Amino acid sequence: MIGRAIKSNDKSLGSEHPYSIGARQKLGWVLHKQGRHDQAELTLRHVFELREKVLGSEHPDTLDALSDLAVVLQELKNYEEAKEMSQRVLKLREKSLGPEHPHTLASVHNLAHLHSQLGNYQEAKTLNLRALSARETHLGPDHRDTLRSIANLARCFSDLGDHTTAESLHRRALSSNIAQFGDEHPDTLTHMNYIRITLYRLKRFSSAEDMFRRTLSVGEKLFGAEHPSVLILRQNLTDVMAGVGKGKAKELVKGGETGGSVQG
Predict the structure, then answer these.
(1) Residues 160 and 121: beta-carbon distance below 8 Å
(2) CA spacing 20 to 30 A to 149: which of 112, 124, 239, 250?
(3) Biggest alpha carbon distance in the chain?
(4) What pLDDT band is residue 252 in, cutting at 50, 70 and 90?
(5) What is the distance between the alpha carbons of residues 103 and 98, in angstroms, rounded to a whole number?
């Protein structure tokens, strides 16, 4: 459908018309979501070139296109180029929108994630602290974006070896999610999964098993027994199995055969 729209717009409006470029950008993002990252990269590079030519290098739509391209490059593990693009987007958004605009904070988040991928955990922590502080101030402590920042910061602490602080932050986010959305919500499940992984890293294997069972139960209700994410859950189970011993491992595998979860 998007492909037909692109052809129609190109024919009637020209390839450099905003509608034509916008349709291409949507196609690039769809390809990314489908896991077709090589095709997404080619499409979004073309979109960025068109945006820059038509609108200039600092136009918000140009920066959106560059940001989308950087996300795809992360998936392709082209971290250095993605980092350069993300830094450029952040700098220009700070200049045009201000340091605490939602789009600027989204750029802070993206750059923090890149630093984590590169193993620059202190830099990632600093950026996540910045995003969390601004979101708490402007959105409140229980806004979904604030809770995502809490989770991102928790993962930074975990990467730095401070799993106790990570657990505390994850539990804060989980408590807020349950209060707002209930036990059976995808965001709640995500935070439960983070806690399960953190408990394993703390070598609290019994608690990790309990959280696993809880995660499994909720995931099964949300996604069903055959959801692809169950494969990720089974992979994650390996660590828990090693901690609780072979006897428990057999029981966990049996339970995992009918469960579902989200990626941790």
Answers:
(1) yes
(2) 239
(3) 68
(4) very low
(5) 9
